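Help wanted!
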Amino acid sequence: MGTWTRPVRRALDRMVDAELRERYAALGVDLNAYGYDRWGASRDDQLRSLALLRWFHRTYFRVEAHGLEHVPDTGRALLIGNHSGQLAYDGMLVGSALFLDKDPPRMARAMIERFFIQTPIVGTMMTRMGQLTGIQENAERLLTEEEAAVLVFPEGARGGGRVWAERYRVLGFSQGFLRLAMRTGTPVVPFAFIGGEEMCPSFSRGEPLAKLLGMPYVPLVPWGLPLPAPVKVHIHFGAPMRFEGTGDEEDEAVLPEVRRVEHAVSELIELGLARRRGVFG
Amino acid sequence: MSDVVITGASGSFGRVATRWLAEQGHTVHAVDLHEHDGLRAGISLHRFDVRKRGFEDLVRRVHPAAIIHLAMVRRFGRGAAERHRINFEGTAKVFEVGRRLHVPKMIFCSRATVYGALPDQPQFVSEEHPPSAARTFPEMSDLVAADLYVSQMLWRYPEVETVLLRPVNVLGPTVQTLLNRYLGRSRVFTILGFDPMQQVIHEDDLGLAFEHALSAKVRGVFNVTGPGEVPLSVMIEEAGASAVPLPEALVTVLRGRLGFPHIPAGAVDYLKYPCTADGSRFREETGFEPRHGLVETLRAIPRHG
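Answered by r_m:
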């Protein structure tokens, strides 16, 4: 971006080492002469953000990813999980888990709420990091033309802005991802993100204020800003699920399948909660 | 090779088409109200309005294999009524003449910008997507109307090979578009916090696209894309200009004041969101492949810096 970010970029560049470079090269991203892919992701910005994210991943959140073998090494995949944490920390950490902990590494392409993409600076940063506006056509193109791993939180902003009383409960998935999986023959890999509810709990969506500001929600976090606490994060991936169909079926045919995925995510959440020793442990 | 009538031949796209197709050996009949000194020897410029009798007489006389209609006004300074008369009614007239006089191929050059730069749009817009530019940019409505008018000729007159091209940003030493003028300044303003992806195509590759549209047996609507996409900031840098990021609210106030270019409010969206298209259909159906690479295309604008 602008010249005012140059010192930050330089500092982050110094954190980029061989591990990150080798893993990035293994992703096989199709970059042009300027180091951008066609969606607007930048190699340099991705490496910088991964350098920062690696510290959060290993030191701050001590992320443990379980069942990474369920994420296919190559080929299209839809990663579907529970959303929490107010500011998509979960999406970033699923991304870093696939990049840092999986062999061979994969890039997760997250479908982002349009509000964030429209926000100055934030939208540009997310684009440079390889994330996209959550529109069916974008996801479909990634899956069919690039055999990508696409990350979707089908609870959307309801999950992102969830409040404490709703913690670790699947709030109902929208059906778009399932129709997409049917239409494109993409396996769905369910996952549970454990720790997101405690890292940034909220007690209200601040609906009147959010409406006034044109935002999806305004979280009421005990420590004011929606910054994450250093809780321990576990991510549990489940076995891939396959669905037959064209994607144009009636709701009656699609909804039971959506419930199956919700159920799979709920089971992984239960497993994850049962296995963890404590919020920080 | 064949006889081709090109309307708007003195305009920047018209010159590209005239030069390119004449070099390929076509007999070009250039039509434009305005004189233009760069015409190749041997090309006759017919100075009349496409809506007048002379145009029809010319088509009747030369029996062209194709008409390439490029006579469009794009400057927003011209009044809405005049733009509508030339862009919409002029296009309708040219297509009416072509159909009545049995011209087998009719090519119209619209722009990918008719899709609009909107945040809720797919990143690579396909030809089926509605041209939605007028939602936030009402000054574009005559261009959108002309585009849609030509696309309905496809089902109305299946015997005519109608080709509607929607090229992305054309860069080059001779073309004069809003974008080329913008990039031609030494300091250009951008919208703080936004840096949308842009697609570019070299003006010679636009000429090549006309050639493919003309020689391939195709009809339909086609996005025409070049060698790839880059952020606006890279485009500005390669043009040799320096970007001055300003808050959007300030740009809205400064438009047309203190030496700022007078651009319509809706044009600002193109500095915020991508308006990028999927050009695979044209490549698959005509075999078109741009010859100029990304770096070469971006550096094709005369540098001012």
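OP: Thanks! One thing I noticed: Residues 251-275 of chain A form the longest helix (25 residues).
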